[in-house]
Amino acid sequence: MINNFFTNNYEDIQLMAKKVCKSHHEWEEVCSYSVLKFMEHERCQELIEAGRAMNFLSGIMHRSFYSSTSSYHYDIRQKGVMYSLPPSTQLEQPDISYNLEEDNVLDVIKTILEEMISESKETWFIAVLFGMWIDTPNFSRIARETGVPRTSVSRAVGDAKVYIKKELKLRGYDDTSI
User: Fold this and answer.
1) 3-state DSSP call for residue 114?
2) Which of 72, 84, 99, 116 could cysteine-pair with 127, CB 3.0–4.6 Å?
């Protein structure tokens, strides 16, 4: 009787799980889990005979999916549980040294670029092209994207480098830290 119920209604049960879970990627897992819990329930046969099995299953699905204290949540989602990889799969990564001085210089350069953008049209032009060059270090590509001649792009990037180095010296950063 139980097998016949699931054979005849499994597609409807899957559809119900998909609707209860609002097509969330866990809907199939919730469906399987709910069917298993229903089959293990002491009143399973009685609910099928009374025609209340689908209602009971939808309740299991709803509580399983939406409750953070349900057995599904702890058995399947296992919130807060972290697993480590076995030592044989650990990848060796070299220690990366962090250079605070370099980070500070980069922050100052970003500030200088922001100031260049707001100061005047000339510094705005070279700052914008320099920013594009940082993202795409190819003068020809920048020239194609902007419609600015390639030599103007390269000259603007060079001018931006000179301007930034001059500003860094004025702010107390020497050439060795750049």
Assistant:
1) helix
2) 116
21 and 75 part of one domain: yes
* Domain range for 15: 2-80
Distance from the Cα of residue 90 to its chain's centroid: 23
Q: Is residue 143 part of a domain?
A: yes
Q: Is 95 within the bounds of a domain? A: no
**CA 155 – CA 139 distance, rounded (Å):** 10
CB contact set of 70 (below 8 Å; sequence gap of 6+): 63, 64
Question: Helices (H), strands (E): how many in the chain?
Answer: 9, 0
Q: How far lies 138's CA from each of 84, 94, 144, in Å?
A: 43, 31, 10
> Could you give phi then psi for residue 83, rounded to 5 degrees?
-115, 145
What distance in Å separates the CA atoms of residue 31 and residue 10, rounded to the nearest whole number? 10
Q: Which helix (H) or strand (E) holds 5?
A: helix 2-20
Q: What is the pLDDT of residues 77-126, one digit of tens each?
A: 765 565 566 666 656 666 677 777 888 888 888 888 888 888 888 889 99
